[in-house]
Design a protein that fits this description.
The chain is of the alpha+beta class and 647 residues long. It contains 21 helices and 22 strands. Strand 10 and strand 11 form a beta hairpin. Helix 17 packs parallel to helix 19. The longest helix is centred in the C-terminal third of the chain and has 28 residues.
Length: 647
């Protein structure tokens, strides 16, 4: 019995974009359908490893194109895994992704055809491109191992119908009732032999399954000697053509593969319609033999930093896909890499558990990591502008490798780039060290939520005065990275927001220390009183050696969390007690000096020290970009101070 369903709201909007001529190059619909069929055949072979009853031994796995010029239809058949009724609803009636809202927001925010195509590809919804060329689409599918087939039909009008159907064998058939062309809409005749040949050759020549097309030819009738009979009599014969070469692109020589072929292969395996940034070829011979063709994408997928993001490497063994998304071939920090790896000696029925402990897989992983990192280093050295584009998209992920990588950690560190106080250009650690004065022994950095917030921090005042460069670490991952990256080139990394800072030369230090000790004696009573009042929030009030123009700042002890890391950890725990910080006061600032003078003259109550302690603490809290402990009280104190100042 036929049932009618409404498309998911996001799907309806996507269909509207497709139907109303989103793309001028409409022939890519066939690439998407062939790619889906190829994936279905891959999944059948994979499941048949553990369930051989799903396929018969003599059944050829193939994709077949069936055009009908009289009916104006084109059908794409495959005998792959097929779908159950529930899978049809989940995969066709719904954009089965957690990020549908992000998809639609990005689609609506861009007017570039290439960017839109890339977005559609990222979300794996290429099936809907059928509606660019078809008024009506009918899908009949039967899952391997099931008896009943399912029929899905829609005119792209916001609804679709589902019914039970009959189908000989497992697989899927998609019939497109083609639109009539007016000659100006970019529609070719997709029932013509030469059109189908051209599209398959251009986009799908590397597909590892035969793409067949039956054509009828008028051929002369021959006599016994093989010559045409008199009168020119002809007969109709059916010819079965294979339109693609089926030679896996990764097995070919790098020099024999054209750039256009590489781009199409990348799109085929990644479902990303944008061009890759660069390919990475690898062929290993010897004890373990394997070959790989990897790609660095041109842009980061929308969900790259989501917990559920899946890696993109396919693992083949002797031309059989045994794992569609292998998480063991590359570490997590390189999860953005797409591509194919083929090994010769792994068992076809290898499980995920066996992969994790297989010596050959461990060797392949090391080889792939080394090759990818070396390729990125070459890109950085030879094409710095292109490397900056890479860093903008994937730098945050690469920073995760400082903690994750064990074998090639130094190579990861050499690839890192950072914001810096020395201009707008990013810098490497090696470049930073090369600019250090001879007497500078540490690499200084400050973490924060943005370049603007860090650059305005009072913690940097002494460094600016001395002309000392400071790295700005403004990615969330930086907070975790510096827990592992504590030293580079025998120089320790040090946060300018922690501990006591003394930038004096060796000759100046003794004199500066004596001067600070003398000042601490004169400020001792006021510091103790402020500490007593602020004890809930600060563990020490002391004089600062890092401030030149600001009255106060908050710092941490050497092993304290930074405010940003504390915020991340608190969010993960759902809240909790905050760290007590250190409040440093600038002894040369007019506010602090006047406050000390009046404290000595009038005492704690007479100068309202508690109020000024709160104001200085609130000022220092805001200056580092943190949230006020009691914003209502702080605001009222500011208003009261303004009223007093105005008389």
């Amino acid at each position: 019995m036929s049932e009618t369903y409404e498309f998911q709201a996001e799907t309806q909007r996507l269909l509207h974009l497709m139907i109303h001529s989103l793309y001028t190059n409409k022939e890519i619909f066939l690439r998407e359908l062939i790619s889906n069929s190829s994936d279905a055949l891959d999944r059948l072979r994979f499941e048949a490893i553990t369930q051989p009853e799903l396929v018969s031994g003599d059944e050829p796995l193939e994709i077949r194109l069936d055009p009908d010029s009289e009916k104006r239809t084109l059908t794409v058949h495959d005998n792959g895994i097929g779908m159950s009724r529930e899978e049809v609803i989940a995969n066709i009636g719904t954009i089965a992704k957690s990020g549908t809202r992000e998809l639609m927001e990005k689609v609506q925010a861009t007017d570039s055809e290439d960017q839109l195509a890339a977005l559609i590809g990222q979300f794996g919804v290429g099936f809907y491109s059928s509606f660019m060329v078809a008024d009506r689409v009918i899908l009949v599918t039967r899952r391997a191992g099931e008896e009943m087939a399912t029929r899905w039909e829609s005119a792209g009008d916001g609804r679709y119908e589902l019914d039970e159907a009959e189908r000989d064998g497992h697989g899927t058939s998609i019939t497109l009732h083609l639109k009539e062309s007016d000659g100006d809409d970019g529609l070719d005749d997709f029932t013509e032999e030469w059109t189908l040949k051209r599209i398959v050759k251009r986009y799908s020549d590397f597909v590892t399954y035969p793409i067949r097309l039956e054509v009828e030819r008028e051929k002369p009738v021959l006599d016994d000697e093989g010559k045409p009979v008199e009168g020119g009599e002809t007969k109709t014969e059916t010819e079965d053509l294979v339109l693609n070469s089926m030679k896996p692109i990764w097995t070919r020589s790098e020099g024999d593969v054209e750039e256009a072929e590489l781009k199409e292969f990348y799109r085929h395996i990644s479902h990303d319609w944008s061009d890759p940034m660069l390919p990475v070829w690898l062929k290993a011979e010897g004890r373990f033999e394997y070959q790989a063709l990897l790609f660095v994408p041109g842009s980061a997928p929308f969900d790259l930093y989501y917990v559920g993001f899946e890696p993109g490497l396919q693992l083949y063994v002797r031309r059989v896909l045994i794992m569609e998304r292998s998480a063991d071939l590359l570490p997590r920090y390189l999860r953005f890499i797409k591509g194919v790896v083929e090994a010769s000696d792994l068992p076809l029925n290898v499980s995920r558990e066996l992969l994790q402990h297989n010596r050959q897989v461990v060797a392949i992983r090391k080889g792939l990591v080394r090759k990818v990192l070396d390729t990125l280093r070459k890109l950085r050295d030879d094409e710095p502008e292109k490397y900056l584009a890479f860093w903008k998209e994937f730098g945050r992920a690469l920073k995760e490798g400082v903690d994750e990588e064990r074998d090639y950690r130094d190579r990861v560190i050499e690839l890192l780039m950072f914001e810096t106080s020395e201009g707008e250009e990013l810098t490497t650690l090696a470049a930073y060290v090369s600019r250090m004065p001879e007497d500078q022994e540490e690499i200084f950095y400050l973490t924060g939520e943005s370049r603007e917030a860090v650059a305005a921090s009072p913690h940097l005042e002494a460094f600016h005065a001395k002309g000392i460069e400071v790295l700005y670490l403004v990615d969330p991952v930086d907070e975790l990275m510096v827990q592992s990256l504590t030293e580079y080139d025998d120089k320790k990394l040090r946060s300018v927001g922690k501990g006591a800072i003394d930038l004096s030369s060796d000759d100046e230090k003794e004199e500066m220390q004596k001067e600070l000790e003398e000042k601490e004696k004169t400020f001792e009573g006021m510091l103790e009183a402020m500490q007593k009042h602020l004890d809930e929030h600060v563990k020490q009030v002391r004089l600062s050696g890092r401030l030149t123009s600001s009255p106060a700042c908050l710092v941490g002890a050497e092993h304290d969390y930074s405010p940003q890391l504390e915020k991340l950890l608190m969010k993960g725990k759902g809240g909790g007690a905050k760290q007590r910080r250190i409040l440093e006061l600038n002894p040369d600032h007019a506010i602090v000096q006047t406050l000390r003078t009046r404290f000595e003259e009038k005492g704690e109550e007479g100068v309202a020290l508690d109020k000024y302690a709160d104001l200085l603490f609130g000022y220092a809290t805001l200056a580092e970009g943190s949230e006020l402990v009691d914003p209502v009280r702080f605001n009222s104190q500011v208003v009261e101070l303004m009223e007093q100042g105005l008389g």
